[in-house]
Structure formats: C-alpha cells, structure tokens
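Propose amino acids for all 126 sites.
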C-alpha cells in the first residue's frame, strides 16, 4: 500500500520559516515533489527532486526562498521554506513519481506524478 504522509505545516508570521516533511512508503519513487493549493485557486507546482538528487527544480514564485531535499534512507523528502509570505498560504501536497522515465518530463504538471499525499496546511500571517 502506497502512502505519502506530510507533516510540518502550521501557522507562522511573514518572514518566518517552516520545514515540511513527506514520508513515503510502499513505492520505489523516481522523483518526489511538492504542490500547493490556495483557497479558490488551481494547484500550483512548487518544487521537485529526483531520487538521484541530480537536480532540483522550483517554481519562480519560491525560487531562492524554498529548498527541497531528500533522505533516501528514510524515503523522505523535505521542503524548507524561508522568508515566508502571506501568499504562500496554501495546503501543501507531496507527490511522487514511480514511473521510471525522468528525462523529457514536465515536472510542473500534476499528471507527471503517480501518488499524492493528503496535504498539510501552511498559513502565513501578515
């Protein structure tokens, strides 16, 4: 049974930091990423990292503030979020790709990923 379990969300003031974690089980992921969805908005890609760790890719809106990393031994991916802004408020979802191909893939598309977590709320107050 595949499970992606997010944790680490919460309420923080603007300028603060949070670290999200996503523990994966029951799958051999080729890449793991984060998306977010704010109220009334479409889901938005945030970041991705392949299991090789050979690259990271970020949305322009978070580049320079967020860092994605992984611990293969724990099958866990992290999202360190610094300099948070009220517009970062959203439910953050972890996603995993199990399909083997990782070249020529559009990482910002939801259909690229095979499994999703339940989400964790991040609220940034002004």
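Proposal:
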């Amino acid at each position: 049974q595949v499970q992606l379990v997010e944790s680490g969300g919460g309420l923080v003031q603007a300028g603060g930091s949070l670290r999200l974690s996503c523990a994966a089980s029951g799958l051999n992921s080729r890449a793991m990423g984060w998306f977010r969805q704010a109220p009334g908005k479409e889901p938005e890609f945030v970041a991705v990292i392949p299991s090789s760790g050979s690259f990271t890719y970020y949305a322009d809106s978070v580049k320079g503030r967020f860092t994605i990393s992984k611990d293969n031994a724990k099958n866990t991916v992290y999202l360190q979020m610094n300099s948070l802004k009220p517009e970062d408020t959203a439910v953050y979802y972890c996603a995993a790709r199990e399909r083997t191909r990782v070249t020529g893939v559009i990482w910002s598309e939801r259909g690229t990923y095979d499994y999703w977590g339940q989400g964790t709320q991040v609220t940034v107050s002004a």
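The longest strand covers residues 18-25. Residues 80 and 89 are 15 Å apart (CA to CA).
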